[in-house]
## 1
Amino acid sequence: MRCYPICKLPGRVMGIRLLHFSSVVILVLLLVAGALTALLPNIKDDKMPNLRREPKSQSQSALDSFTLIMQTYNRTDLLLKLLNHYQAIPHLHKVIVVWNNVGEKIPEETWNSLGPHPVPVVFKVQTVNRMRNRLQIFPELETKAVLMMDDDTLISAHDLAFAFSVWQQFPDQIVGFVPRKHISTPSGIYSYGSFELQTPGFGNGDQYSMILIGAAFFHSGYLEHFQKELEAVHALIDETQNCDDIAMNFLVAKHIGKSSGVFVKPVDIRNLEKETNSGYSGMWHRAEHLLQRSYCLNKLVNIYDGMPLKYSNIMVSQFGFPNYANHKNKM
Amino acid sequence: MRCYPICKLPGRVMGIRLLHFSSVVILVLLLVAGALTALLPNIKDDKMPNLRREPKSQSQSALDSFTLIMQTYNRTDLLLKLLNHYQAIPHLHKVIVVWNNVGEKIPEETWNSLGPHPVPVVFKVQTVNRMRNRLQIFPELETKAVLMMDDDTLISAHDLAFAFSVWQQFPDQIVGFVPRKHISTPSGIYSYGSFELQTPGFGNGDQYSMILIGAAFFHSGYLEHFQKELEAVHALIDETQNCDDIAMNFLVAKHIGKSSGVFVKPVDIRNLEKETNSGYSGMWHRAEHLLQRSYCLNKLVNIYDGMPLKYSNIMVSQFGFPNYANHKNKM
């Protein structure tokens, strides 16, 4: 039997040494078990949410997510209502609130006290109440895609998720939910309108030549383009406190040489302006609003030395949603 | 008075010479007037159409027009009905009828006796009744765009004009009216179906991964691609007398690395097969038709060593047609 040198020890001494050895082994095993237990993930108690959970949207790739930019003036109640909705939209990276309530405190305390929130929300305090504040280049903007929303517009998550996927296929265009058009008249003067305005007359149906940016996705690069626009464009927007969206469509159409936008037909879009307590009802109710927009068209044509807007009649919807077979035919 | 040499002549002689001169002038004027009258365009008499009017579609650019390729078997009555409709579609360059009625005379005499026709129609006599006959490279095909139609399908001119304009924006894809999809199962075996088949499960709504070529526009270059396909693909189509459209979608998807097709929702599409006198009801009524198509999917995946089909949920409609405001919202 090979047990040298242990075997040479007397039986009693060997017994005690064996006991010591076993104790050491057991202790080591307990320590190892303890270490392993410490490495196991914590079992979350449903009743006690982890307040320190790291917001997972931070890890979303800048290519697969978008930033919501929402400018707000005198409708903080609507803003907070909308933030509760929009903060949970899939693929949202961050929200940037452009705070046009000059001199008024941002609701950051309220916001934080009602946390945690799925995504970070940044309040950008403005020193002047300007329409084009929302078209600045914000350092907090990290994604290629921007979702720009007016502070009184509610669009369903389904619509936004679908429209974002469409934007990803047409990243150089403004992909959104509100189409408008220009028409030319025999005098060469342009006029602005929606579907009630006569069609450009290309055949059947209607055409659109702009997608309004108050409910649309577009590439963040266009914000840089916009900042480099001629001073005359900025002055026009400041003069009218209007038309920043028309200017953006001119910019994009000129840049890509085709229709500036792609219209996605929304399933569920709502205007909440009647629900505000502030009584403030939005710029588009001003008597001169539409006339201003026709005015802007013609001014921009002067500045651009031509009409770059192009017509499109493509209307995009989501296949099989919301109706199980919204494409069914008698065939 | 300066009138030498005329003034030197006696009065009577001068009178006669003046008369001669005037006559000559009048004669010349009459001749000129006559010549001008001959150059005036003929006033067309509405009751007597000019039988020798040159078909104006011949001058249509190969880029702005398309060729209709329609394969036909045992439904000549439907064929002729459809030809009357399709011959007048805007932007149509020519019609190629793939005559699968082997041994039967083409209706060329009937066709000519009922002329003139807006576009040329060519009957291509086939020696074997094969499904993939329609995917040959016909020398008469001059346009970049092909419209392929089954011989029992009637689609409105509005739909076709719109879909053609959509194809021009997506020329590398199959732009058509009939979407289908594949789904994968836990076993790795694929199955084929329409909207009743479970969705691929990407979120809301449905997806499609194929556009059937029996009612679609695609680039004529894909016919050349198809001819160069592996013999196994041709053999599969010949074996099943089916699946040429699935094979085309595999080809296109592999080639462009994205969804093979774009679905255009038709406003007015009709299947006329019940109206035929022949009693022939089409391949898709065979009991094994759908199972064959699942079979083809899996065979093609073997041949392609992978599944190249990609899903899409983009559904395209024409803005403002047929309803004046088919995009109107509560907003």
## 2
Amino acid sequence: MELTVYLAGQIHDDWREKVTQKANEKGLPLQFVAPQTNHDRSDDIGEAILGEQPGKLYRDDAASSINNLRTQVLMQKSDIVIALFGEKYKQWNTAMDASTAITMNKPTIIVRPEELIHPLKELSNKATVTVETIDQALDVLSYIFE
Amino acid sequence: MELTVYLAGQIHDDWREKVTQKANEKGLPLQFVAPQTNHDRSDDIGEAILGEQPGKLYRDDAASSINNLRTQVLMQKSDIVIALFGEKYKQWNTAMDASTAITMNKPTIIVRPEELIHPLKELSNKATVTVETIDQALDVLSYIFE
Amino acid sequence: MELTVYLAGQIHDDWREKVTQKANEKGLPLQFVAPQTNHDRSDDIGEAILGEQPGKLYRDDAASSINNLRTQVLMQKSDIVIALFGEKYKQWNTAMDASTAITMNKPTIIVRPEELIHPLKELSNKATVTVETIDQALDVLSYIFE
Amino acid sequence: MELTVYLAGQIHDDWREKVTQKANEKGLPLQFVAPQTNHDRSDDIGEAILGEQPGKLYRDDAASSINNLRTQVLMQKSDIVIALFGEKYKQWNTAMDASTAITMNKPTIIVRPEELIHPLKELSNKATVTVETIDQALDVLSYIFE
Amino acid sequence: MELTVYLAGQIHDDWREKVTQKANEKGLPLQFVAPQTNHDRSDDIGEAILGEQPGKLYRDDAASSINNLRTQVLMQKSDIVIALFGEKYKQWNTAMDASTAITMNKPTIIVRPEELIHPLKELSNKATVTVETIDQALDVLSYIFE
Amino acid sequence: MELTVYLAGQIHDDWREKVTQKANEKGLPLQFVAPQTNHDRSDDIGEAILGEQPGKLYRDDAASSINNLRTQVLMQKSDIVIALFGEKYKQWNTAMDASTAITMNKPTIIVRPEELIHPLKELSNKATVTVETIDQALDVLSYIFE
Amino acid sequence: MELTVYLAGQIHDDWREKVTQKANEKGLPLQFVAPQTNHDRSDDIGEAILGEQPGKLYRDDAASSINNLRTQVLMQKSDIVIALFGEKYKQWNTAMDASTAITMNKPTIIVRPEELIHPLKELSNKATVTVETIDQALDVLSYIFE
Amino acid sequence: MELTVYLAGQIHDDWREKVTQKANEKGLPLQFVAPQTNHDRSDDIGEAILGEQPGKLYRDDAASSINNLRTQVLMQKSDIVIALFGEKYKQWNTAMDASTAITMNKPTIIVRPEELIHPLKELSNKATVTVETIDQALDVLSYIFE
């Protein structure tokens, strides 16, 4: 039984590569999918496809519609969602993806540092599992196959 | 036809009172519901009901389960959700409530200042309507009854 | 048992008033709701609330988000949808509202003139009932209460 | 991960072949499905299977039930729906298929020429993404696999 | 708490009046709804509204679309469905209504005489409760309010 | 794209073998599933597994629970349901299976002889397609792959 | 806004009366519903309505179908479910009702004594809130209206 | 057609191995999944991944969130659920898993000894099939493939 895991969260470091590598090392039958992780590409995609827009609002709206399509397609194909929160940026997309997954009854793991316990408390409480590190998230995934 | 509107968002000023007052002035047949807006009460409610918890994580988890029950009950009774974003705080609960509402097919209005266009772009794109001010949100509600 | 009926369709004549008046004459316990029937208001509503937009595309997108919120709210409150097609205009909103209602399992009556049998054949086949005139649609509504 | 894409829209030129060919050139792992694209066959299929019907209404109703079954089967198997609008014909089936897909939470791309911005504004606003050309639609599909 | 009960089943005697009268005698807060119980009216309703049809198949199809709309509206408003089977006629509408209700998760009571145990065994097994008489069905309804 | 088809209906002749053979001759990528077609086995299965029951009612209830499990498993795996009605027996299971499939939004084909038009009119109207013969049903299936 | 609360759990003392009385004292706009709390009546209801059954298994199955109908009707009408566990009896119905409510997305409060923390840990984790006493459950209900 | 079967129930003997072995002997195309069957591992998993917790309640809550994720993932992938009850322990997880499966419309087989007929009567009545032994459950599974 191979499972597909959507990796929601910040796109400013290579945490998804670490997750994938560690899953491979453990031999877990997992396929990982994710949002666009090239930040500039993610911001530019609207104008890259639809042409120049008349201002930031419209440029952002164009990009977001295409990012949302990608996320909707890949999350619907996923069996599990991992949402990683970090200490920088607004991370509202991470909160949005986690909430969407929970409302769709997708089993959802939140990864968040200790500093974020308080502002994330309601979302953590709704998630299936909350952990602090990527290694713990992988331990949870690994446990499914024991 | 009376409609029920859930007012998600920050609880640090009296914006909900303004919404309610303006809706009354317009004579709109609306009933407003909301999360606990007393911030200390919201943070304390876990220990207030369940007793002292062994640390911040557990105190927060206890409070959030009760806040989540309140939100789940009231959002399920609502016909429309308004989610207001401001410039301070993480506001992940606002993102969570808006995403939950959208995924439940609740008509959802996001209110956000111009400064937040970029970080909220994917969520705004998924919402039914995005506006910048409370007055605009009320104009949208009023339009339903024209 | 009072029922709520959403009246989808063109907004270029007073057919909704006729439906309402005839239902009253028959003493049917029906409440009617509808999209914005003032065509200029419907087209202007985006800029009226959100301010001037940078071009027709953006003006139309702003208006449509607010029209869609109104339709979503009122259709979710409705027990039955009537969708009237006429001989002028594209009427894609009528097709959209009828299809949305059918997919939501709302009992749906299509009213269409004989000339439109062929282009509407697949949609008519999916609707619960297809009739040619408003009087026939009212006869169907009346039959529920016999 | 192979995805299945339903191509809704007019059946009067070979746009689907172009989409398929371009997807192959890009090496995208996509399977395309579609309604019956032979227009005569689509109109005749009711009488071809069920025998002669007593008039146009009945001939059309017979054909449409079989076309609807085909669409229902193939759309339920699809991960994404592309709906292309052109400048000729009523195209109510295209609006119907797009609305059905959106209501079923299928990620949906509308392709429409600039001339149709206004009459399609509400449907475009509900779709996940709206573009103007087939090449842009393919760019959106391609973006999922970046 | 008032409950609405849909009474599916044969329309060849006055069993629904008996149910209503007995419920009134017991003082149960129940509202009863039902299909058209005038058999001729039920068969004629298609042509009565839509005009003469070119043969029995088309006459029956026209009538059935209007009967189906009535049933869909009233069953969606109901909290409980009672389906009564008797010894005459095909009663496929009764089986259809009971199966529809069960699949919609409506609590469903089947009333059937002893002679029909065998041919109804799978449907009875899927229903919430199976009884043999109207009085027993009323006892079940009455039990909800004890 | 291989599709799975559930064949509901009477189990007194070999119509399912004919369907399978004809589908093979046409080279259609279809997998067929069905209820238990050995009538004695179907009636005996409750006591065969659970032991002797204290009377016909209990014997039938035991058998039907196991038949219902089989049908529920196989229908949930199916993309299309064909329900064949014949001239003998009550055939309430056929009506039950067809209604269940329609309510689950499974594309459904009813096969019924001309004599049964009237008693099946409401169910036929709700089905996606109604035909008179197995060959016509196969033509409908074949049309999906044109 | 009046809310309806289903009180699942043991029926061996008068805890429901206490809940109702305390809610009244607090002036909470709540309506309470519950399973049959007369234990003998609950066990006898099958034979009381359907007549003597051939053994305990059949007697219990008859009673349970009627108890299940009552629970299904009342739980579907409820906005919140409270499930109280005590120290005696198997209490599988309490676990069943709580799990059913959680899976239906009903906000669910579990009341359980400290001794039952371990055997109820998975169910408590899935519930919206877990408390130890009736007074705490009422505090949670009361918090919705603050 | 291979089916996946979730085996819910006590983890104190090797009944799952027996089920698997017997299914293999019968040549049934079944894949079995299950909760963690190492009891200590199941109780320890929270602290094993998340670190020491401040007391039994928190230790149990941490473990249960991870056990619940595993069950949610595997049950959503399953076509059938078997829930085995024995004579020892509270077995509330078994009742929870069975109720969850039934509410999700998963075909569900309950295996319970004769002694448990009475306390399990409502849950048995809601399950698709109830049997007394593992061999009978396998006979039911085998019947699907006859």
